[in-house]
């Protein structure tokens, strides 16, 4: 199952080799023209020489993770791994989580002092990042060094599983769900139109790969496909939810790096409504996606984002609605269809 | 100029919602231009080919504001800021949206601590979620309503003074340079208040050799006895802001032009200001870009004040500096 394979693939920012291999395998099987650029972005194109606006669809391959910074020496922490986040990770979600260290997937666990041994003061505060470590069961520092080096990346060891009511859990729905939507949309897309599928690197540390991808593609229209924050759970007022899982893909009006092109946002909205695809506004300003970098490249690019609501985003286990995923694929196809028919002129 | 500036100030145009003001400005420069167009990011651009190296004028059109991000079941709106907005300045005021709908900004002022934009609640008199969403759809931007006012024709106050006054100066300067047959362009830029996002795209398309960026500069003459920048003391040369240091060639040209005109010049050295100059300077292979401004009390806020005589002097300075650079 492709979504399972994509979410379980290893690929924190800067270490996208394994996820890139999965993406390339899928694209090659579709017979598309595919290349990997110097930063590691994968760019596939179809209909490049047809008339019509050049449309860039973007999904980032990298995921948030951790990076080993040093291997503990001395009696108390011999062989324990100290680490820093790779991308935006809340230290409070890390304690006791199973992880894989390095691309060979050495199993480990993020350790912390058991509750029995904590001082009363320690129990009242979250454990700061500096006090956390990864335990790989090494006997001492030399033993750990045989398996791990500073700079090795770490991912959460979360298996993809489907839950009742068309929900699924996994690590890295941000943004493997975007990769999945983009792969499935481009697989189904047959109409002649210059369409470029960009699977980018290093989004989680500042939208770094997308800039170079857009520079190469020089699109007229760009759409980022993303997993986005949802907090539609108990006691959250409407204005604190951002998005609601199960209500369809979300469209951005403003985020941390983008003020939406109103005309394009409404085009996305009306296209969804006309085809009975559920759709919602993303009701938060915080966070961003690759479109924040793409729209500023060169002479400027018109476009926006189509996002799938993700509960517990940037945490070890994230939840999505598979219906939202399907509706996002349908919406991407519908939008390409409208653009091909001249329904939106950039 | 005053009447026209005050008309320009009537438009509510937070970053991303600049289109009507951009059109009004392009209408003003169209007779002098070879071509005018609006680009993908909303910059309005006019180009006039002529003698000498290409000099680009730029002035941002947008202003900070608030944007509807949520509507609750009772028909009240929540907002996020567009650019930097102090929530305290909004409470109890009227907000005017780009579509002409007005609302009132509420907040519980008895609450302790910092008041954030997320604590603001807007009442547009709607009786239900559906009615409110029809009136002001999610994504609609607005700004605190402050009708412009002029004291004896010299000192102007109101919303969006920064940088509609600068747009008026840039439009006039473009027409004057074009009338002299010089190789020039003007960009009325979008999205400055959110971090100078669109100016680089304008410069990318125009590929100028020189650029003069016209903007309001914070005057500190209300709170300080010995201000660095004050109203009525003439135009301002931006030596440094968050994204640029003025090139010596441009600094000399401006200073010599000011001396020739007998104008006193003020200097801005700021760690906070973020004009479009840096973005334009670094577009493509780079160009010689300089920021020139007029003093504005409470620049970047909603209620602002400027002295039109500073802008008149700035207009003369822009022309003289442009000719010095292009010579």
Helix percent band of chain B: 25-40%
Oligomer: heterodimer
Strand content of chain A: 25-35%
Portion in beta strands of chain B: 25-35%
Class per helix and strand makeup of chain A:
alpha+beta
Distance between the termini of chain A: 37 Å
The CATH architecture of the largest domain in chain B is 3-Layer(aba) Sandwich
| Tally of helical runs of chain B | 9
Number of domains of chain A: 2
Q: How would you sum up the major sheet of chain B?
A: 11 strands, mixed
The total tally of domains of chain B equals 2
Greatest chain-chain contact: A-B, 23 and 29 residues
Strand order of the largest sheet of chain A: 1-2-12-3-13-16-14-15
> In total, how many beta strands of chain B?
17
What name does the CATH topology of the largest domain in chain A carry?
Answer: Aminopeptidase
- Cα-based radius of gyration of chain A, to the nearest Å: 21 Å
* Helical percentage of chain A: 25-40%
Given the C-alpha coordinates, what overall shape of chain A results? globular
What is the CATH level 1 assignment of the largest domain in chain A? Alpha Beta
CATH topology of the largest domain in chain B: Aminopeptidase
User: Would you identify the regions of chain B where 5 or more consecutive residues have pLDDT less than 50?
Assistant: none
Q: Which descriptors apply to this entry?
A:
heterodimer; A: 346 residues; Aminopeptidase; 8-stranded mixed sheet; 10 helices; B: alpha+beta; Elongation Factor Tu (Ef-tu), domain 3; 2 domains; 11-stranded mixed sheet; 9 helices; globular
List the helices and strands and how they pair.
The complex is a heterodimer of chains A (346) and B (327).
Chain A: H1 2-8, H2 17-29, E1 33-36, E2 42-46, E3 55-60, E4 65-71, H3 74-77, E5 81-86, E6 98-101, E7 106-111, H4 120-124, E8 133-135, H5 141-145, E9 153-156, E10 161-163, E11 167-170, H6 173-188, E12 195-200, H7 208-217, E13 221-230, E14 250-252, H8 262-274, E15 280-282, H9 291-294, E16 302-311, E17 318-321, H10 322-340
Parallel strand pairs in A: 3-12, 3-13, 13-16, 14-15
Antiparallel strand pairs in A: 1-2, 2-12, 4-5, 4-9, 6-7, 6-9, 7-8, 10-11, 11-17, 14-16
Chain B: H1 2-10, H2 19-29, E1 35-38, E2 44-48, E3 51-60, E4 65-71, E5 77-82, H3 87-90, E6 94-97, E7 102-106, E8 121-123, H4 129-135, E9 141-144, E10 149-151, E11 155-158, H5 161-179, E12 182-189, H6 199-206, E13 210-219, E14 236-240, H7 248-261, E15 266-269, H8 277-281, E16 288-297, E17 304-307, H9 308-326
Parallel strand pairs in B: 3-12, 3-13, 13-16, 14-15
Antiparallel strand pairs in B: 1-2, 2-12, 4-5, 4-9, 5-8, 6-7, 6-9, 7-8, 10-11, 11-17, 14-16, 16-17
């Amino acid at each position: 199952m492709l979504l399972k394979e994509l979410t379980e693939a290893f690929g924190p920012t800067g270490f996208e080799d394994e996820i890139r291999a999965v993406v390339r395998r899928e694209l090659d099987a579709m017979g598309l023209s595919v290349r990997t650029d110097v930063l590691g972005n994968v760019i596939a194109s179809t209909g490049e020489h047809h008339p019509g606006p050049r449309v860039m669809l973007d999904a980032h391959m990298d995921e948030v993770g951790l990076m080993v910074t040093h291997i503990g020496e001395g009696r108390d922490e011999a062989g324990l791994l100290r680490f820093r986040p790779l991308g935006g990770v809340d230290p409070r979600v890390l304690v006791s989580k199973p992880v894989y260290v390095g691309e060979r997937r050495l199993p480990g666990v993020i350790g912390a002092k058991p509750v029995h041994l904590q001082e009363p003061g320690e129990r009242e505060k979250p454990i700061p990042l500096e006090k956390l470590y990864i335990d790989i069961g090494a006997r001492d520092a030399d033993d750990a060094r045989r398996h791990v080096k500073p700079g090795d990346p770490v991912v959460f060891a979360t298996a993809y599983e489907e839950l009742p009511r068309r929900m699924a859990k996994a690590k890295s729905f941000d943004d493997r769900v975007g990769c999945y939507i983009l792969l499935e949309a481009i697989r189904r897309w047959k109409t002649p139109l210059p369409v470029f599928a960009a699977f980018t690197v290093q989004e989680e540390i500042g939208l770094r790969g997308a800039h170079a991808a857009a520079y190469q593609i020089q699109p007229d229209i760009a759409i980022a496909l993303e997993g986005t924050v949802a907090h539609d759970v108990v006691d959250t007022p409407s204005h604190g939810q951002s998005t609601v899982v199960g209500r369809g893909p979300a469209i951005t009006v403003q985020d941390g790096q983008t003020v939406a092109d109103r005309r394009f946002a409404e085009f996305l909205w009306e296209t969804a409504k006309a085809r009975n695809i559920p759709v919602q506004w993303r009701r938060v300003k915080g966070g961003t996606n690759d479109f924040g970098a793409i729209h500023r490249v060169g002479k400027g690019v018109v476009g926006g984002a189509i996002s799938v609501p993700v509960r517990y985003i940037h945490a070890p286990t994230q939840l999505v609605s598979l219906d939202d995923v399907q509706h996002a694929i349908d919406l991407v196809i519908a939008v390409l269809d409208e653009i091909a028919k001249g329904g939106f002129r950039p | 100029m005053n009447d026209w500036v005050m008309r320009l100030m009537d438009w509510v145009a937070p970053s991303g919602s600049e289109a009507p003001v951009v059109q009004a400005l392009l209408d003003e420069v169209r007779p002098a231009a070879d071509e005018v167009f609006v680009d993908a990011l909303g910059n309005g651009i006019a180009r006039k080919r002529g003698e000498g190296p290409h000099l680009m004028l730029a002035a941002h059109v947008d202003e900070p504001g608030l944007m509807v991000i949520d509507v609750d079941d009772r028909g009240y709106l929540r907002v996020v800021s567009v650019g930097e907005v102090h929530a305290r300045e909004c409470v109890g005021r009227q907000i005017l949206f780009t579509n002409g709908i007005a609302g009132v900004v509420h907040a519980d002022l008895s609450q302790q601590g910092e008041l954030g934009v997320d604590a603001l609640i807007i009442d547009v008199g709607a009786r239900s979620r559906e009615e409110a969403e029809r009136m002001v759809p999610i994504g609609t931007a607005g700004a605190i309503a402050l009708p412009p006012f002029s004291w004896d024709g010299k000192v102007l106050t109101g919303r969006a003074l920064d940088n509609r006054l600068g747009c008026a100066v840039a439009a006039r300067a473009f027409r004057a340079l074009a009338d002299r047959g010089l190789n020039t362009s003007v960009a009325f830029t979008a999205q400055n208040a959110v971090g100078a996002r669109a100016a680089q795209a304008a410069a990318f398309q125009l590929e100028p050799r020189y650029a003069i960026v016209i903007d309001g500069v914070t005057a500190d003459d209300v709170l300080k006895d010995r201000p660095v920048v004050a109203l009525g003391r003439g135009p301002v040369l931006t030596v440094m802001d968050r994204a640029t240091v003025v090139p010596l060639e441009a600094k000399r040209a401006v200073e010599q032009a000011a001396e020739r005109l007998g104008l006193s010049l003020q200097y801005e050295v700021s760690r906070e200001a973020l004009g479009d100059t840096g973005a334009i300077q670094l577009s493509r292979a780079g160009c010689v870009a300089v920021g020139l401004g007029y003093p504005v009390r409470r620049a970047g806020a909603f209620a602002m004040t400027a002295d039109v005589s500073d802008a008149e002097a700035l207009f003369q300075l822009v022309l003289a500096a442009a000719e010095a650079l292009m010579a």
